[in-house]
Amino acid sequence: MQNLAPASEGQRIRRILDANLDRAREGLRVIEEWCRFGREEAALSAQCKDLRQTLGRYHTPELRAARQTDQDPGTALSHPQERDRQTLDEVLTANFARVQEALRVIEEYAKLTNAELSETAKTLRYRVYLLEQALINPRQARQRQLQQAKLYLVTSASDRLLEIVEAALKGGLPLVQYRDKTSDDQTRLTTARQLQALCRRYGALFLVNDRVDIAVGANADGVHLGQTDIPMELARQILGGDRLVGRSTTNPQELERAIAEGADYVGVGPIFATPTKPGKAAVGFEYLQYARKHAPMPQFAIGGIDLGNIDQVVKAGATQVAVVRAIMEAADPEATTREFLQRLSQGEAS
User: Fold this and answer.
1) Which of 94, 173, 199, 251 is packed most tightly, with the most Cβ within 10 A?
2) pTM
3) Can you give the three-state secondary structure of the chain, one letter per residue?
């Protein structure tokens, strides 16, 4: 092998971007071929082609020139699962994951060299989530998106509700729960439909608090249930099996119930005292750590979490958090959302 001078940081970043642009475009081509020849759906094929061509515009000769395949230690690595795919769903699921992971890598590293590419990668990643829901098992796609969601906004009453939620979505918010305890049902349904449309536009999951009927009427991705709401089995019967159902928990006994019910995720808290849950004592970090150890599903730490204490919560073991006032009452919801996501990403990497 030819001896070459050590690559600069910029050169290494270009290599990363080149490799992941290749990876994303290859995965999209695999998906596109099934849309075109397997499903014979022109609209889905066109979506794949547009995604590929958008990435292709950023795959410049400068990035390609940084490629050093003969020095890449990853070329010899493989995983048994890559050889054992036996069904169409396994092939499609693996390639969707490949595309989504590559886009996330591009989004993060392009922040250092090309902010436009970073934003484009984030937008495309959301579009890929929606394409996955349209093409394969919607429940599986929603569960994957749920597992990857680091931040969860629970709304509160506001005259600027739609404006705040859209700003947070622009900041990268991946999950919204509509919570409204006071409005009449027609208002709730109208607002839920508006929020659902916003979440679809940005590729985020949309859930409704408590009200399974409103969730159905708004075509939500699922519902969040408290301890005194209808049984989870009944909620699934009404919603259909491809939707998500989450459950609030405050102690190990409630967590065991949620596990037995097959909840898709659990809320864990309140971590700190919060006016959103008046009369409920803070559970602190002990229960959070218990949930991290025992719960097989995603766990969202919730209750009084803000930018002033998020680092403590992450240090205590949380990888996914839910907030209310920290975004709903923020002067700049978009910037606040970005800051939350950055802190959570830093915590995951440390």
Assistant:
1) 173
2) 0.76
3) CCCCCCCCHHHHHHHHHHHHHHHHHHHHHHHHHHHHHHCCCHHHHHHHHHHHHHHHHHCCHHHHHCCCHHHCHHHHCCCHHHHCCCCHHHHHHHHHHHHHHHHHHHHHHHCCCCHHHHHHHHHHHHHHHHHHHHHCCHHHHHHHHHHHCCEEEECCCCCCHHHHHHHHHHCCCCEEEECCCCCCHHHHHHHHHHHHHHHHHHCCEEEEECCHHHHHHCCCCEEEECCCCCCHHHHHHHHCCCCEEEEEECCHHHHHHHHHHCCCEEEECCCCCCCCCCCCCCCHHHHHHHHHHHCCCCEEEECCCCCCCHHHHHHCCCCCEEECHHHHCCCCHHHHHHHHHHHHHHHHHC
Active-site residues, by number, are 179, 248, 277
Q: Give the tens place of pLDDT for each residue, 144-165.
A: 899 999 999 999 999 999 999 9
